[in-house]
From TrEMBL:
Listed Pfam families: HxlR
Name of the molecule in the record: Winged helix-turn-helix transcriptional regulator
Ranges of residues in domain HTH hxlR-type: 1-49
InterPro entries xref list: HTH_HxlR, WH-like_DNA-bd_sf, WH_DNA-bd_sf
Species for this entry: Nocardia rhizosphaerae
Amino acid sequence: MLSDRLQQLQAAGLTRKHGPRGAYELTTEGALLAEALQPLWDWSEQWTTAGDGNGRIPWRPAR
């Protein structure tokens, strides 16, 4: 199931395989999508106790 989703994200140009172990990482487009979704993530954190504790999407690249 996870493998299928990662392949779909790769086909959409949001992730790519990187390195000798084939780890997935966000492409520029994937990072831009994460940036665009940040306000929705912030809003959702008001309604849940989940999250990384600093109000950021856990997979979002650090700046």
